Amino acid sequence: MIQTFLDKLNSTILCLDSELRILYINSTGEELFDASITALVDKSLPQLLSPVEANTFTTKLQRFSEQQQTITEHEASLTLANGRVVIVDYSIYPLDDEDQGRLLVEIRPLDLQVEIALDTLNHLQKQASQQFARGVAHEIKNPLGGIRGAAQLLEKEMPKSELREYTDVIISEVDRLQVLIDNMLGPTTGMVKNPVNILEILEHIRKLLETAEPDRFQFHRDYDPSIPEFQADRGLLIQAFLNIALNAVQSLEKNGQITFKTRIGRQTTINKTKHPLVVQIDIIDNGAGISADVANTIFLPMVTSKAEGSGLGLAIAQEIISQHSGIIKFTSSAAGTVFSVILPLEQT
Asked: Cα(348)–Cα(340) distance, rounded to whole angstroms?
């Protein structure tokens, strides 16, 4: 009962022994330290922090343990062993019982609320832009049918066959624009949810990409095999992840690298809704990164920095993930880009 309650908290709760080894950590700590509870228990807390941070934090923990004082620090910058910096409030509570030297530590990330607000704002902006794009697409689609029909009639009246090549050009270009408009409108069929295995979907995409360009890049897989099946539309998810993966491939030079990574997340908020269990899928490339000129608009339709791109792949991917109550985020630098898809695990 108590463990269930602790697992539902947004805060990371740790119980440490006198040598600062983790005796207990709640499930929220898995997301903070990017490791499972099994891997974290019995590990020394300083091992999870950067060397400089470990020295400072260890000194504080030992001092408060000896003095049996409770302390809280606000807006502290905490650098983890993987280099990630989080802004947190944390509290240290010495446990006053027969087991002297034990500590209770609570860590509350402050950037969570800011992230939720930004996610909500971005979601609303993208919804508005997608509605605008769909409206424009519908307005263009109707005249295209008329142009195609007129070209077909004109073709029948052409006295010379060599003149029909011009009507052929009109018809083929109208058909090309029709495909583009259909892509702008997004998936036209309703979702059909069935139990899906996310690793099977990712492996399907990996095989597609390796078959298409076997010598251009190397694939790496970092899968959590414990992820359960969940309810989703398999076909739509394949389309979404394929669009994201293709975007990664297009950013690579020869002999580039792509990594598919999956992890379980707990007590994660997506667009103001808190989900007890989510899956995070990272698609990581070591390409040149996303241009700053398009970074804030990359999910909008028709936005692209690639000469051969239509600017619709990521917009369609985001629409599909949104239909599954999920979200797409990304971080990018000159060393590469990470697209993270977070989906609630709606149990079968």
From this structure: 23
Q: What is the pLDDT of residue 203?
A: 93
Q: Which of 260, 254, 248 is nearest to 204 (CA)?
A: 260
21-79 per-position pLDDT tens digit: 999 999 888 888 888 888 899 999 888 888 877 777 777 777 766 666 777 887 777 78
In this structure, are strands 103-109 and 85-94 parallel, antiparallel, or unpaired? antiparallel
What pLDDT, on a 0 to 100 scale, did the predictor assign at position 348? 44
Q: Are strands 217-222 and 256-270 parallel, antiparallel or unpaired?
A: parallel
Pick from 323, 318, 3, 301: nearest CA to 132? 301
Whether 109 and 88 have beta carbons less than 8 Å apart is answered as yes
Is residue 1 pLDDT above 70, yes or no?
no
Q: How many whole angstroms separate alpha carbon 195 and alpha carbon 232?
A: 6
Q: Residue 169 has which token pair? A: 């050009």
Q: Can you say whether the dihedral through the CA atoms of 245, 251, 255, 260 is positive or negative?
A: negative
Strands 12-16 and 336-344: unpaired
Q: Which of 322, 305, 326, 302 is nearest to 313 (CA)?
A: 302
Q: How far apart are CA 243 and CA 239, in angstroms?
A: 6
Q: Given this model, what pLDDT does residue 344 score?
A: 93
Write the burial class of residue 24 (CB in 10 Å: 0-12 exposed, 13-18 middle, 19+ buried): middle
Burial of 17 by CB count in 10 Å (0-12 exposed, 13-18 middle, 19+ buried)?
middle
**CA distance to 152, 213, 238, 339, per residue, from 208 (Å):** 38, 9, 11, 19
Contact 110, 26 (CB under 8 A): no
Are 45 and 90 in contact by the 8 Å Cβ rule? The answer is: no
Q: What is the pLDDT of residues 187-215, one digit of tens each?
A: 655 678 899 999 999 999 998 888 777 67
Side-chain-side CA neighbours of residue 9 (13 Å): 17
